[in-house]
Amino acid sequence: MHATSTRSLAKVPIALSTASATFPKPYSFPHTTRFWLHTADESVIDFLSELGIGFCNIDQPLLGKALKPSAERTSPIGYVRLHGRNYQNWFAENKRSSDRYDYLYAMKELEPWADRVRSISEKRRESVYVVTNNHFEGKAAVNALQFASLLTDRPVDLPEQLLARYPQLRDIAETHESKSPRHRETAAGE
Questions:
Q1: Domain shared by 139 and 158, yes or no
Q2: Which range of residues forms the domain containing residue 188?
Q3: How far apart are CA 26 and CA 49, in angstroms?
Q4: Parallel, antiparallel, or unpaired: how do β-strands 128-132 and 54-59 relate?
Q5: Do 146 and 170 contact (CB within 8 A), yes or no?
Q6: Which of 28-32, 138-142, 155-159, 172-176 has the lowest average pLDDT?
Q7: Cross-strand partners of 176
Q8: Residues whose CB is less than 8 angstroms from the CB of residue 175 and which lie 6 or more positions away in sequence, other chains included
Q9: Is residue 51 helix, strand or coil?
């Protein structure tokens, strides 16, 4: 392990020492450490596992030293955070901080993350938390509903106002036929 990496990791237990022993501890590494994690081998994951510190799997614009998508689980809980992929505003100057999270995932972008969450869940039988952090204009809620439908392969009961604002949700909306979203896609393509 690189010396700088070792010094950075040595700070992790200290940073988390104020947390209760029973409180789940997923850790999102700061930007200065992300480069190291981006290039690290399994020793990083092993180190976090030994300490019982959760790894934060994130989706974000892949700019510079950004962490790539992953499916790691290093503690009893799994943790995924979806920030959105707003490349244009991620590091833009003279923008509001909320502008970077102005992004609505397409279902095709969420599907690989649903597979990753299933993989994380298989590693241990406890909870996996998925946080949609693309909160601008309620887009996090929209993507959370889509994500729930992907994971359960079931339609979701949605209010008409939400369907009016986000018509793409009709693909996962519960209907009287109660078909699964994938079944409706297949039927529509026939």
A1: no
A2: 153-190
A3: 11
A4: unpaired
A5: no
A6: 28-32
A7: none
A8: 155, 184
A9: helix
pLDDT at position 91 is: 85
Retrieve residue 20's tokens: 């209760």
Whether 17 is in a domain gets the answer no
Q: What is the mean pLDDT of residues 74-95?
A: 89
Contacts 24+ apart (CB under 8 A), 13-18: 13/51, 13/53, 16/53
Is residue 109 located within the same domain as residue 174? no
The Cα–Cα gap between 165 and 143 comes to 13
Closest CA to 28 of 63, 66, 61, 64: 66
Beta bridge partners of 26: 54
Looking at the domain assignment, is residue 123 inside a domain? yes
pTM of the predicted protein model = 0.76
Amino acid, res. 53: I
Is residue 18 in some structural domain?
Answer: no
Asked if residue 159 and residue 137 are part of one domain, the reply reads no
Query: Rounded distance, CA 172 to CA 155, Å?
Result: 5
Q: Quick one: 120 and 109 in the same domain? A: yes
Is residue 130 classed as helix, strand or coil in its secondary structure?
strand
- Asked if residue 71 belongs to a domain, the reply is yes
CB-based burial of residue 51 (10 Å sphere; 0-12 exposed, 13-18 middle, 19+ buried)? middle
CB atoms within 10 A of CB 161: 8
Predicted pLDDT at 63: 84
Question: Based on the structure, what is the number of domains in the chain?
Answer: 2
Is residue 122 located within the same domain as residue 172? no
**Rounded Cα gap, residues 62 and 64, in angstroms:** 7
